[in-house]
Every structure is written in structure tokens, then in C-alpha cells.
Amino acid sequence: MSGATLLALLPNATSLPWRDIPAWPASEFVQVTAAALARGARLCSWFAVPEESGDAVQLVAVLAFDADNTLAVGRSTPVRGSYPALTVLHPQAHLFEREVWETHGLTPEGHPWLKPVRASAGEAPANAPFFTVEGGEIHEVAVGPVHAGIIEPGHFRFQCAGEEVIHLEIALGYQHRGIERALAGGPHRRTLRQVETIAGDTTVAHATAYASVLEALGSGEAPLRGQWLRAIGLELERLANHTGDLGALAGDVAFIPTAAACGKLRGDFLNVTAALCGNRFGRGLVRPFAEGPDVSGALVQQVLGNLTRALADVEQAIAWLWDSASVRARFENVGTVHRAQAEEIGMVGPAARACGLVRDVRYDHPAGWHRFAQAPVAVWPGGDVFARARVRSLEIQRSGDFLREQLVAAPESGPADDSPASTGDTLAVALVEGWRGEVCHVAVTDAAGRFRRYKITDPSFHNWSGLALALRGNAISDFPICNKSFSLSYCGFDL
Amino acid sequence: MMIVLGFVLRLALWLLLAPLLPGLINKVKAWVAGRRGPPVLQLYYDLARLWHKQVVMSTLASPAFIIGPAVAWVAVLAATLLVPLGPAGATLSFRGDVILMLYLLALARFATTWAAMETGSAFEGMGAAREVSFAVLAEAAMIAAMLTLAVQTGSVSLATMLAPSVGTSAVLLAAGLFTVLLVENCRVPFDDPATHLELTMIHEVMVLDHSGPPLAAILHGASLKLLLFAVLLTQAVLPMGTYSPAVAAAVLLTGVLVVTVGVGAVESLMARFSFRRVPLLLTTAVLLCVFALLVAWQGAA
Fold it and tell me: For A475, which of B122, B189, B274 is closest by C-beta distance?
């Protein structure tokens, strides 16, 4: 155990009565959280739960002790006005505290860069003013929010000296989707559909997290076959996205063979998902408390055949990439995030593993089917574009092996539980390792068991700062490959 | 009368054949990628479409925004008239025309960058900066290559310079000039004409804000420049003067085709360089041309 912590401990995909979560006055709560973070915990989520009456809020922290395979939660007593910022001690809290300030008006005293995360500032880009660098040789480059490709809106402000980027600030929040607001008061009949659209390319991960939260609140569990299907869907999602992004990385450095092959192969993986659930992006694959779509033995064999062919082709396409000296020259020592930086800003997923950090929810906090079967964690040192691409190609291999192994190990269909109602005044947490990294869902219910607060943390929320750091001291012309190697979600951030 | 007819024919040849080259390169790339690709004549369709479009002008830009592409197009076209077409010879040929050709190409570059700077956009400024930085080395290589030919033939007129065999330095010149061709025409590994990423572009980002007929002039000018370099490369490397007119014409045509397919093959099979490594490759091109010059010089002595 990494030293005693005063926070309440709970495993992944479980719940805890609200009154059992220890509470401190805000300033003390910040100290307790900081102490836990200093002992090696990670901040998975930090948010505020408004009081039913009045403008006071309670701060909630969800932490992960990866080495101990446990999560920890704590909260503050109702607070209004201001409190001493956690960011000063632990930079990984910086976006979370800005978010709370923006939504609830609670000021973190001493926050070094307090400005909106998503709200717009009149006609200025979402969260102007930007950090500027002064000097006669300095020029500023503004990219977006409307881009040349068909992608989501985001604004990138570079401070450059010639070709070298001195500082990059990323402004998001153009989409104003209101997802968390729509989920409050739920679960509604629409909630699952809404959760599936949090980030369309991470449908299975978000839906699994939501289903796990509901199951934890109802003290139930999905039938084994449902848990198996979720694990299959999750890895298929990883395969499709990693393949597509490696192809796009090749495209960005004008390396045609891999770019052309991977664009097609991504579609093959999506089609496999569609064969299982009827939707290429995995909608309808996950049903809380249920097995999900009916998957026959014949279908499994067909899926296995298609998958094996696609995996062999991907291996070839990626071999072209690694065998090409001109490609390696572009990827190596570009966009480096150092291990210490990655730890400090709380990076997750393949981007963190490419800095040598062993962080994988499937391994550290196994829930559902991952309690029985795991793929080896893919780690690579270096922290550059090469390492990120390498981790993703390793994950393609290992997810492929995992799928080939697990597809033939399907558990029998069993009777499903009735969907029990959610327990009142409870907090439930679910972490899922999506292809981008840790997806974190936290639900706090009211006395009637409805969502008083539903907090979503997409891995992109942790990792966008990593991209900004990666660019420092690099050529501005290398931004596209750095960006693509992280491949972060705009809508997962904008919520 | 014959002079006028010859002039018109050569002009038509340059103007009409040039847009074929980018189409061929794209076909090669599409073939490698396993796609069908755009039609070979796509650039002709694009030019026809752009010709009928309106010009959108930035409120910040002066008329130079329009003048730039026009000057650049005329300058490149004038340069092509100085380049002999195998047995057909050049439209205009005089002592020192090679120097005028180099200056016309430089003028075209100046006009394009000038128009790019007119927009006041950070993107176009960056593109212009890259274009002129890399041109410093590319032009040095080009001048060294032309000097080699001048030393070999003792002439400063393209018609005589390009006629004889260049012997041992031909291989060095071929490698050097092919590299210059790639950088001057913004092909992979220096630039990627297919990319949509503004931050990585050189030529494309300079013309990002152009539209309608000026954009058509830029696109056509770029294809003319590519044809010019392909013709120049073929004739500089092969002993054109020793062939009979019919053979020479066939050789020239084949040479241009080989160069075009070569550009497509390079583009299909390698990634582009990062900008900090571009000067390295360009310096190599300069050295190749300088070594060719040394070989030619010593051979003459």
C-alpha cells in the first residue's frame, strides 16, 4: 500500500454510499488530495456536486492508485466563493479546477492560468486571451477553428521563432454539446444513446463505462456473455482506430503505401464490429444488465475469419512503415514528452505508455471480462512520435492476439437479471481503457436514485496538455504528425 | 512566315502538353496505392473550371496579389521559349540565353512570393520564407549544373550547351538535376502537393488564398515549370546532338516520360523529409553538380 490515505478506497466499477465518503473543509480536502497524489496516485476526475439549495458545492476527487489496483474518493464539505488551488501543488488538476470555476463559479485561489475551458469569450476564440511571447523575431500562427480537413473545431495558437514553436496553446470548447447537463436527472430512456455519442470513435468504451456505473449503482452485474462481448467490442474499437491513425500518420508524411492500406483496413475492422451489433461504431453493442446483441457460433467463426485476414494485412502495412528509413527519420525525436512531464500532467493511454509509464486500466483496475483475460500492456520509452506510433502498433498486435484467443472462448448464454433500480445517495465509479486511454464515469445519485451529477472524463481531457508540451522546441511543420500521434478527441473534451 | 508558325507551334506544344505531367504523376501514385485515381486530364478540367470562376480578393491585398501570378506565369512561359526542344530547337536562341532563363525562373519565384506576402497571412508568410530559403541552395545547384554544361561546350547558349554528350559527369548531373527538379517543383521529399496540412506546405500554402483565373495561372505555370525541368534534365544528360531528328524527338519524349514516372515513383515510395533535413539533401545536390563541374573542367584541361 502506498502509505495510508484518508480517502475512501473502492475497486473499479463499484459504488459507495455518499455518507461513507469522508468529507473535509475545502482547504483541508485539497491537502488530503495533494498528499495522496504525492504518494503516487493519479487524478482521474475532479468535479463539483451542487447542493440541492443555495449556491454552495461539494468538491469530489476520484484518484487511482495504479500499483495497488484500487481507486480512492474523497469530498469536501459544502463550499462557496473560493478555496486554495490544487493545481499549485499538482498541475494535473489544472483543467479540472478551471472547469469547476467555469461551471460553478468556485475560484481556485492561486491557479496560475485561470480562464474558461469551454465557454466562449464574446467574439474571441473560446478561451482567449492567449499566452503570448514578446520579441521582434516572434511571430504568432493561428490555426482553426475551421480546418482544411474534415475534422472537429479547435483553435491552436502557436508562438514561433521562425520554424521553431516556443509555445502552443490549444483552445477548445466550440461545440457546446451540453451532454453532462442532459444526463443529470437520469437515467432516462435516451441516456444510453447519449452516452454512445460522447465520442463517436470511443462508443464501446463510453457505453461500457456507463453500463458499469448503472450496474454498480444497482448492485448487479451483466451476464458473463455480455461482459465478454463488451471486451471484444472494446478491442475491435482499438484495432480500428489504431489502424486508421497509423495510416493517417503515414499520410501526413506523404508515405503512400501504408496510408492507402490502413485506410481500407480500418473499414474492415469497423465492418467486423458491424457484423456483431449492426453498427460500425459499436452502437447497440453494450446494454446495461444484459447480454447485448445475439451472437451465434457461426457468426463468431465468420468474424474470426475476417479478423484474421485483416490482421495479417495490417501487419504487412505496418511493416512497410517501420522498414522505411524516411518514415523513421520523421518520427524519431519529434514531439517528445518526457516521462516526468507526462506524470506531472497526468497523461493516460497509449500517449502515457509511450513515455514509459505503465498505465492501463485493463491491467491495473480490471473489471468485467478483464478480470479473467488481459492483453499484455504495451509500453515503449522515449515519448516521441515514434514511441506513440510504436505503442499503437504493439497494441494492434496484442489486441489481435487477445481477440483470436477470446473469440473462441465465449461463455454460454445465461438468464439475465432484471434491471434493478439505482440505489439512492450513492457514488459509483467506472474506469474503462478506451483506445485513447482511460475513460472515467462517475455518478452521484439523489435520494430517489436519479443522477444528481454525472461526470464524464474522456482521456482527451488529460492528454491535450501533453500535445501542447510535445510541440515545445519542435518545428511547426511537425505539428500535424504530433497531433495525429496523440489523436485526441474534440467532442470528448467539449462535452 | 515560317518563323511565326514555328513560334506558334512551339508555344502551343509547351502550353498544351504541360498539364499532362501532373496527371501522369497522380496516375502513378494512384496505381501504387491501389486506387483508380483522377483522370490523366484532370488538370485540364481544373484549369477550365477555374477560368470561369470569380476572383476573391482579400481586403488587405494590393493589386500585386493578382499581378504576381500573372508575372510568374509569363516569366516561366518566356523561360520555356529559351529551352530547345530536341530537333525542333528553341524559339529564341542567343548567346547568354541560359542566364536569362535562370533569371526568368528567379523572377517567377519572386513574383509568387510577393503575391503570397500580400495576403498578410501567417501561413503564406511561412510558405514564402521556406520557398526562398530552400531556393538559395536549389539555385546554387542549378547554376553549378549550367556552368558544367557551359564548361563542357564552351558555350553559353542553351541550344549548343544541351546538344553534345556530357560523358562521365552525366550521372552526377542527372542525380543533381533530378533533385533540383523535385525541390523546384515542390514534390516529395521536399513538399507534398497532395497534403491538406497548411503548416507543412511550401508552394501550396503560398497560393492558398488565390482563386479563379490567377489560381489557374499558378497551376498551369507550375506544370510548365515541371515540363521545363524534365526537358532540361533529359537533354543535359543525353547526347541529343548525336541522334537523327526522329530519334532525338523520340528520345526526348521518352526521357520526359521517364522523369515524370520517376517523380511519381519517388512520391509513392518514400516519406517526405522534415524541413530541418532539407538543406542536407539540397547541399548534396549542389555538391553533385559541383563535382560534375570539376569533372568537366578537368576533362577539358
Answer: B274
Q: Do the Cβ atoms of A254 and B272 come within 8 Å? A: yes
Instruction: With respect to residue A483, please indicate whether it lies within any of the assigned structural domains.
Output: no
Domain count along chain B: 1
Cβ of B133 under 8 Å from any chain A Cβ? no
Burial profile A475-489: b = 16 or more Cβ within 10 angstroms, e = fewer: bbbbbbbbbbbbbbb
Main-chain phi, psi angles of A166, to 5 degrees: -90, -40
Q: Which of A256, A262, A327, A328 to mutate to test the interface with B (most CBs of B within 10 A)?
A: A256
Residues A318, A443, single domain; the answer is yes
| Cα–Cα–Cα angle for B76, B80, B85, rounded to 5 degrees | 165
- CA angle A331–A335–A337, rounded 5-degree value: 125
How many angstroms separate the CA of residue B202 from the nearest CA in chain A? 10
Would you tell me which residues 136-165 of chain B have a C-beta closer than 8 angstroms to some C-beta of chain A? none
Q: Nearest CA of chain B to the CA of A141: how many Å?
A: 6
Per the structure, the count of domains in chain A is 2
Q: Angle at the Cα of A99 (from A94 to A104), degrees rounded to 5? A: 130
- Residue pLDDT, tens place only, B149-200: 999 889 999 999 988 766 778 899 999 999 999 999 999 999 998 888 889 9
* H or E, element range at B148: helix B122-153
Domain limits for position B122:
18-300
Q: Are residues A423 and A301 in the same domain?
A: yes
pTM of the model: 0.93
pLDDT at A124: 61
ipTM: 0.90
Residue A167: Cβ within 10 Å count: 18
- Structural domain boundaries enclosing A419: 187-456
A69 and A217, same domain (yes or no): no
State which amino acid sits at residue B149.
L
In DSSP notation, B258-274 reads HHHHHHHHHHHHSPPPP
Contact A254 B276 (CB under 8 A): no
Q: What is the DSSP letter of A417?
A: P
* A232 shares a domain with A97: no
CB-CB neighbors (< 8 A) of B194 in chain A: 254
Please give the pLDDT value at position A1.
43
With respect to residue A180, please indicate whether it lies within any of the assigned structural domains: no
Residue A475 touches partner B, C-beta closer than 8 Å: yes
Residues A432 and A331 in one domain: yes
Which of A155, A158, A253, A330 should be substituted to probe chain B, the one whose Cβ sees the most B Cβ atoms within 10 Å?
Answer: A253
- All residues of chain A having their beta carbon less than 8 Å from the beta carbon of residue B192 are 254
| Mean pLDDT along residues A109-121 | 86
pLDDT in tens, A248-293: 999 999 999 999 999 999 999 999 999 999 999 999 999 999 998 9
B36 touches A at CB < 8 Å: no
Inspect the interface and report whether the beta carbons of B192 and A254 lie closer than 8 Å: yes
Mutation target among A164, A255, A313, A321 for the B interface, most CBs of B within 10 A = A255
A177 in Cβ contact with A197 (< 8 Å): no
pLDDT tens digits for range A150-200:
889 999 999 999 999 999 999 998 888 889 999 998 898 999 999 999 999
Question: Could you tell me if B280 lies within 8 Å of chain A, comparing CB atoms?
Answer: no
Which pLDDT tens digit goes with each residue over A212-257?
A: 999 999 988 899 999 999 999 999 999 999 999 999 999 999 999 9
pLDDT < 70 stretches in chain B:
165-166, 300-301
For residue A344, pLDDT over 90 is answered with yes
